[in-house]
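Example 5.3 — BCO2 protein
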Amino acid sequence: MYAVNMRNINSLGGKTVQVKLCVDPRVCKRGVHAVVPVPVLPHVHVGVVVRELEGFQSLNSVKLRVDTVEGDGRGVTFGRLRSVEECERVRNAPAMFELGGRSVIHVFDGFAKMHSVAIGQHGLNFSSAFLKSSSYTRSKKANRYAPSLTFLGVDPEFSELEKVEALLHPFDNTDVNVWKYGHGKNSVYAALTDEWVYAKFDLETLATTGVSIPPIDGVHFLTHFVQSCAHPLIEPGTNNSINYVLVPGLIPGQKQQYYVVRMMNLTSFEIIANFQTDKSTYMHSFGLTKNYVIFFAHPAIVSVEKMVTTVEVSEAMQWFPDEKTTIVVANIKTGKVEYLQHDAIFVTHHANAYETDDGKIIVDICASDDGISILTQYKIPLLRNQSDLYQSVAQTRFHRYTIDLANKSVETKTFRSKDPMQDFLHQIEVPIINENYRAQHYCYVYGVVLDFSPSNPVNGSLSIVKKNLCAPGKDQVWFHPNHHASEPSFVPNPDGKDEDDGVVLSSVFDAILEKNYLLILDGKTMKKINTAYMPTYIPFGFHGRFFS
Ligand SMILES: [Fe+2]
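Solution (predicted structure tokens):
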């Protein structure tokens, strides 16, 4: 039980409930107090929470107590973050997996819920809210998981009639990432998935403000299912975002048309390049330098026909290990496109890319030689079964590709080590960097090794890795037994001069207490500066963004 000091309650059960929560009743100030029951949490498997979290919806805003590392010397609040003005870290995560006796089978299909930690001069505030996508709203209204395109289907499965119904609605359960479009007062925040659909939300309240599939001049969408990417990138030196859309060829032999789009905001776009592939390739991310956008059109092929008949993306996707990866390099200034062929490799995330003084292009990626089998790692029955989960080891590792357009050649470096710990750290995933070094020569990548095996060098905990690309063997790691980190954010010190001068933030699941906390690490030393426990857990998710 928590003692709650309730202030400014505008409407219980409405969208604007504000509840100040004092974790320690002994220090709560005088005022109206109520007792809010915290749900008794069943046993969970270490590291992964794939359970409904709707019960927390009504606690819209909760003040967090911030702990200070003993002897830290940086005061009692939150260390270097005090020098950063009002800012907010938002994470997106699937948080509801069953409704009305129908369950989803893959974590990708859980309904999106956003969780934010707002950081101000007076402390931290935690909020969370389900995204009111049409998929979520229809399902809640019907009190049953409503027909929709899914990644891996539902149990019990949709009837043939429901599959037809699924095709009539947009695929808008945007539970992968969040992004800011535009600049200043005109900024729009949206939740993203690998489709051209945007679920906009208010940064302060997390309230959903609308879902749109914006038209693009010059692109004829064949349906409202338009493949795009949940990892846009900021065009260097601008506030524009870069992304792509795919218009699949439906007639045998017809090329797949990819359009690279410059997004000034969510209503203003321009096509800056167009390229073709023989088959419809699923690409979850891409690279960007000052002059080029780089795509790895790997042989993860999606059959539009199968997707329409099964309404499942996974059923429609197939890996062809004997086929090549086509590396597409498009000049974002001229639109010129060049194609290079290389071995099959499945790219999950691009860390960074930049051009060297001698005209080469460096592309750093997390990728797997085993194709799309990594996607089966996140089936919910597997995540909920401890013995299965313990078999779930990291499947991707860090690679560096050096592209020489002048000679039409590609060199690859796969990061491997005979030292078990060093090799483990090379398997970094969900990579993030100091964004001031985007598209520039850089040294540091922060991320998490998604390896659940207790026999790994960090005893099955999900650790935070700092990979040093400029000093081999100098990678660093933070981990704590039974604590499981998620994709970090790097917040640079506004007055800092070094690339790693700043703090690393991560939402960490404490499997003993079954709660998450905000972890603040020193970006240089990877030592803990501070923590702030949240009054609940945050379900297992993949991405988020730090907005300042
Ligand atoms: Fe991703």
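Remark. Residues 38-547 form a domain with the Methanol Dehydrogenase; Chain A fold (CATH 2.140.10).
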